[in-house]
């Protein structure tokens, strides 16, 4: 019963794959950040709609938040995508 949540813990929602999956990626603000993110996304979610990407800089301009929807095929894909985005050294969060 290792997967049974403890008292007060919520069970994470179950995702049914494949599905459209929304990502919010936060990194250091830079002109090429969207390009860097797109290069990683193309490896893990080929064919994603790069024209639908939106981004916004933080109030002080230190960070850039990028939103994109990919076709998720499974948790292995999402884990590898997260790992490779973080490995760029420029991404702080992937939500």
UniProtKB/TrEMBL annotation:
InterPro entries: UPF0250_YbeD-like, YbeD-like_sf. HAMAP family: UPF0250 (MF_00659). Belongs to the UPF0250 family. This is UPF0250 protein V6243_09975. It comes from Cobetia marina.
